[in-house]
TrEMBL record:
Keywords: ATP-binding, Cytoplasm, Kinase, NAD, NADP, Nucleotide-binding, Transferase. It is an enzyme of class 2 (transferase). It comes from Peptoniphilus indolicus. The active site is at D51 (proton acceptor). It holds the Pfam family NAD_kinase. Its EC number is 2.7.1.23. One of its GO terms (biological process) is NADP+ biosynthetic process. Gene3D superfamilies: Probable inorganic polyphosphate/atp-NAD kinase, domain 1 (3.40.50.10330), Probable inorganic polyphosphate/atp-NAD kinase, domain 2 (2.60.200.30). NAD(+) binds at residues 51-52, 56, 124-125, 134, 153, 164-169, 188, 229. The keyword Nucleotide-binding applies. One of its GO terms (cellular component) is cytoplasm. The keyword Transferase applies. The lineage of its organism: Bacteria, Bacillati, Bacillota, Tissierellia, Tissierellales. This is NAD kinase.
Length: 267
């Protein structure tokens, strides 16, 4: 790893571009070599924008092991801890080694169709739903034990870090990022004589496998959203979810910053 090289990834809005320009100059003044072209040998990657920019940057760079930190120019920033007003302080703290590296747990989905299998990885969540806003019918299993015959808008599988995002909007519980668990949350479940769906989320141990099997008539009308990115598969047979062996590294400056972030975003 080459010392002093720092990647900067920014979205294109005015505030982010303005903040990036300032950040580049501050880094240069402190002896660093900032680059806006991703360098796999960099010691740090700084994402400028909101949480969406952070997620896109991680996916685009294939879950790089380079530590990441976010500068928040968006609205909601659970991954974006640094405000544009504190850039000088951030660089000084980083330069002096006053930071902590946290590992962020990811969720993996192994998708089986009639002709192939593929693995997708998410930081926040993976959602299984029907196309064109239709109701979808699925069978859910935990470690091969049948859990429910689901009917509704979809099922959401969330990481602890993602539990404050789309999961929270659908009534899911907030999970502390240190927990080795993930969460299954129903989206607008419907109960009938034929279908019995849980109305609340379930916390799943990290070493357990959740399997989602669509009814045959829905095998080619599914939509899978991975951190908001859409995928569709013909002849979908089954999806196995488990905590991924991959992690990403996130740079933070306080052991207890999570609680302050939680309070400032939701209270």
């Amino acid at each position: 790893m080459s010392d002093k090289i720092i990647n900067i990834i920014s979205n294109s809005n005015y505030d982010s571009r303005k903040t990036t320009s300032r950040l580049i100059q501050i880094l240069i003044d402190n002896g660093y070599t900032p680059t806006t072209t991703f360098n796999p040998s960099a010691e740090l990657t700084i994402c400028v924008g909101g949480d969406g920019s952070f997620l896109k940057a991680v996916h685009k760079n294939s879950f790089s092991t380079i530590p990441l930190v976010g500068v928040n120019t968006g609205h909601l920033g659970f991954f974006q801890e640094i405000s544009p007003e504190n850039l000088e302080e951030f660089v000084e703290e980083y330069k002096n080694g006053n930071y902590i590296i946290e590992e962020v747990k990811l969720i993996g989905a192994e998708i089986f169709t009639r002709t192939k299998s593929i693995i997708l990885t998410a930081i926040n969540e993976i959602v299984v739903k029907a196309q064109a806003s239709k109701i979808i019918h699925l069978n859910a299993y935990v470690n091969r034990n049948h859990l429910e015959k689901f009917s509704g808008d979809g099922i959401l599988i969330s990481t602890p870090s993602g539990s404050t995002a789309y999961n929270f909007s659908n009534g899911g519980a907030i999970l502390h990022p240190s927990l080795n668990v993930y969460e299954l949350t129903p989206i607008a479940p419907v109960n009938s004589v034929a279908y019995r769906s849980l109305s609340s989320s379930i916390v799943i141990p990290g070493n357990y496998v959740v399997s989602i099997v669509p009814e045959k008539r829905y095998s080619s009308s599914n939509l899978i959203l991975v951190d908001g990115q859409e995928y569709s598969f013909k002849g979908l047979k089954k999806i196995n979810f488990r905590m991924s062996n991959k992690t990403i590294k996130k740079l933070t400056f306080e052991n207890e910053s999570y609680w302050e972030n939680l309070k400032s975003k939701f209270l």
